[in-house]
Amino acid sequence: MEDLKQVEHERISTSLEVETLDVNLFRSKNLWLPPLSRGVFGGQVISQALVSATNCVGPEYALHCYFLASASPSTPILYHVEDMRTGRSYASRLVKAVQTGQTIFILVCSFQKPEPWQPSYQLPMPIVPEPLKCESEEVRYERLAAREGIHPRLKQYYISCATERAKSPIDIRIARDHQGVEVHMYWMQARNIPHYDAPFQKCILGYLSDFHFISTAPRILGLKRFGKGPTGLAMLSSLDHSIYFYDNDFDCGDWLLYVMDSPRIGSGRGIMHGRLYSRSGKLVAVTSQEGVVRADIREPGAPTRSAKL
Length: 309
What we know:
Blueprint: H1 12-16, E1 18-22, E2 25-28, H2 42-54, E3 61-67, E4 78-86, E5 90-99, E6 102-112, H3 137-145, H4 152-167, E7 170-176, E8 183-190, H5 198-208, H6 216-221, E9 233-245, E10 256-266, E11 269-278, E12 283-295
Antiparallel strand pairs: 1-2, 2-4, 3-6, 3-9, 4-5, 5-6, 7-8, 8-10, 9-12, 10-11, 11-12
Helix pairs in contact: 2-5, 3-4
């Protein structure tokens, strides 16, 4: 197996970079397709749309976005930014991501001037091991691939995941798989970045916020990617994604603890909630995402493949 310690990872700035084509019009420069994914990594589309919107307004915002179709990594994405409203305290922008004439993604940003004099509250940060005491994902995938008797297809999948994780601009370490009922926690950090200002830090957070989010739902259900029948994962795809920023003083170049849980999964869909904490324990952002989560189960009464339709 390739020595992953020698693999040079990509820069987060390259993943987020967009080209300015005109006023309020931007184009992607690099797109990433994760192993076995249906389309471009959703976090990259989110972050590039955020970069585009931030270039058109100030730095303070929350956001909500919708994934309408999978994006191909072979064709650039155009980001159209529309001024919805600009008030004294809040400004709203609509970003449409278009590829080959089709709108594949819509982002709504709400920018706010900070009001630090207002009262505040947050859920406390869970107690977990320090990041460097936690296993990195590339090491975990290497360990899984090295198991005896593993199916060749699954082994190759783990090897490809290990290589992708080593190349990724985001370092991910498993803080805790389960706590209580079903809570998953990961330390995440952008590798080797300078100290960027708050607007770009939020774009980086938008990128990493999509890692393991809806993909945690099938793990909660016990669905396996290469499984068959009720325990097999037939489809997994994001529908929407929200991020609510509550802090401007955080650094994605340091570690952020991403705490995830799901209040409900059913009817072929699942919803995830997330919280991102700085190492000092400050809750800097709250996230949510709904997605398609389907097991390999045929609808009752549906015709078999050999039956005429």
